[in-house]
């Protein structure tokens, strides 16, 4: 106890500065959690959270038995999986490439250019996609003009294209911004190691493989763990803006389903049950991935 | 010293940040009055030309209309009538709309407790939900005391709006029966005449004509491909099914048993009709992506030769645009509304009419002066009140009508002529406020002359050759569907099932229509049907049948 007190006294400035964040997390992240109780009730909006009839796991069962269940889980895992598969290495590769640029002005310009899509809202991205990929869009016009197709392809109207369009736009939008964390990790690598590598003649690829990647291994693993923990976060606005009845079979994910049944239709209990299931699975995934990382790479976040 | 100062700075930072988290005091909801009391706005002075005695205190009706709409346009279109009512009636109508899903907005209002005194356009199940939460008030005592016009206008049907305890929770909007079409097939007239106006009776005839039209006009002036048919987000599958003899998506037998279109051969044929056009490459590939405005742009650009949808779609997106944009515009460059009926169907049931109205206007428990609000709502249900709210500001140069007082009124001849000539400026006339404050008035024929209606442009059907043609062509497709209303309330076990099936059907229909082969189409359709039945469609059919029969009994009493 004395050790704790001494430590807190020693780090008091840090703790005082942290107080607002701790309060913020308690108020906005932990306090609302009591609302999860409605997942086990027939809650009616406007009533107290404790006034609904208890129904146990009925809403969970309804979701698991619903014909939507399989489709929604498949879409969520597929979209998230593709995002992880392409979205996690892409900023790492971009950071490594940017790190190799010698001309500082060009490097800054390229970096800035790569961030811009991150700040474009999904509404604008959706309208760009409609302009590019619509039946009368640029891509169809080019394909027809060059004789590859005779009739326009409804890229946005056919479900089979949906995952690839979404993954591509996600990667395009986030690659620049997500590369920042890798760039900062790369900047922290000891220059002497790089110089030593040069002396040893390991070359550019050797430097990447033997110095850069091991040097930022902790960052990479951390981001992979967080990424896998969020595998059930497959997006939301993207699906709502780009999806349509013809692509719903491929675009409906847990978050859009929860939004539709909870916020739009007012079945709060059912939506809360679905979201609670998602949260539990996400926590289990984070813990599982953390253990794996600890066992195989001796790196963990918990 | 350094440590002390950094501790002070850190503490100041923490306190400063936390200070930002303080909250204001919340105002609790007003208690719901059980009985009408003094309105607090006693009338004073002489009645105005409409027979309305201005209240001494301004009656404020602050309402949210639960329709998705553009707030800027609504503000623009309501300003003149708002000022007119404030000056002549001492009634301050404050209308709020949002460009978001109204169901979502109402749910958030209910959950947060932030809602206005009056809410318009609330549907049955939402009324039920708000009633269960005691967030809306029983209007019976107020209507009993101040609602003479309301009772007179609704007549015997008034009692059908009361719940099992004899309480009235909402006043209907758009009630009454207007025997005009809502939903029709459309065809481009000038190109149809070019073809010698071949006879069109069945969907197959219709498609054949559309196909020939596309063959004659394969691209528009900009070289863009022309399609036989398209679709937009305002087109309802159930209405389309009417061509195949189904009523609002259900097949009805002589004993009033209902079967959903997915479980009928007619439903399969209807979906096949669209799939065939799709496979022929003549259905707009973006049909299920099109929002109304996307569709309107394609339509106005002469890229769609036919349409199955609301009658006004082709007016709004067709000749109303062309007459201002096409230099040598001829009046037959327009669409006409026609009725088509599948072979073997007893009738084409395209326009279901619910005489009970679209939805309701309710008073919430925050209403400070329900008596004064009901008094004004009662006025708007009188024939002259309906005219004022339906046709907008009278007695001005650009008004649609003139009012002398003592129930003497007349249409503005200049505006009427413009309407019949096709030069009527809808955009400008919207700003007179007609039907922009649609709180409780009806849409049927008004009781004092049995011919005028709140829809200004529907008052001259016999004199307007195009409207008359539409009415004549489609008169047999309009039917009374009042008894088919089902309330999916929060405690109804079919509510969630109904929603899941609606979603499934909407998506599944789109998928079936866009299959590339007949086999794929049939298998997708069958798969959709099986999925829906597994989800409980057949139970839902039974439930709807029971409710329908109950309603028929009530309405026939």
The run of helices and strands of chain A is HHEEHHHHHHHHHHHHHH
DSSP E strands of chain A, number:
2
The whole-number mean of residue pLDDT values of chain B reads 91
Give the radius of gyration of chain B: 27 Å
Structure summary:
Chain A has 302 residues and is an all-alpha fold.
Structure description:
Chain A is mainly alpha-helical and 302 residues long. Chain A has one domain (68-297): MetI-like (MetI-like fold, Orthogonal Bundle). Chain A is 71% helix and 1% strand. A two-stranded antiparallel ribbon of chain A has the order 1-2. In chain A, helix 6 packs antiparallel against helix 9 and helix 15 (254-264) runs antiparallel to helix 16. The model of chain A has no long low-confidence stretch (mean pLDDT 89). Chain B has 557 residues and is of the alpha+beta class. Chain B has 2 domains: 43-177 and 357-457, 3-Layer(aba) Sandwich (D-Maltodextrin-Binding Protein, domain 2); 183-349 and 486-556, D-Maltodextrin-Binding Protein, domain 2, CATH 3.40.190.10. In chain B, the strands form 6 sheets. A 5-stranded mixed beta sheet of chain B has the order 4-3-5-13-6. In chain B, helix 11 crosses helix 12 (311-325). Chains A and B meet through helix 2 and helix 15 of A and helix 1, helix 3, helix 4, helix 18 and helix 19 of B.
